[in-house]
């Protein structure tokens, strides 16, 4: 976990955007204002730290059935990305914020749906109980950090989107396909750690 912590932007200096993929998104979206959002990359403490991920329910309007980090749109009352990530994690998976130790941030990431996401990286206490909110989350699962750090588990491919060729990455673990924005943010973590 020390190598991971050392790779992060410090809590005292949260990133402000634009996202590290801003040029790509500007090609697709133009210079429209991105809406602020935040997600929690929470690693459950233990002998093998494990990243907590969710599967979104099939009936959601956007990204239905996809693997995602707990998180979402920032509300004016939140004040900052850390508060957004903790509030959303509480709402989506019942994570008690007193069992979360924030470690730092990754670089902001812009999505095709027009958000600029601030990824918050944190430790989650081993005893934390997680319960999916049935209206948003179909399942909560965990992936060992060691799996994500193994180069053979990072798959690269190209996808055509609106006439553009886009370089993509994905991980497949225990029957779950981790791709899209979630995989891209994990790639940013690996790059910051010098592992990709």
Poorly predicted runs: none
Overall residue-averaged pLDDT value: 92
CATH C-level category = Alpha Beta
The biggest sheet, with number of strands, parallel, antiparallel or mixed sense and barrel status, is: 8 strands, mixed
Second-tier CATH architecture: Alpha-Beta Complex
Q: Provide the CATH topology.
A: Nucleoside Triphosphate Pyrophosphohydrolase
Strand residues, percent: 25-35%
| Spatial gap, N to C terminus | 17 Å
Q: What global shape is seen?
A: globular
Number of beta strands = 11
Tally of DSSP helical segments: 5
What is the count of structural domains?
Answer: 1
Structural class by sheet pairing and helices: alpha+beta
CATH superfamily: Nucleoside Triphosphate Pyrophosphohydrolase
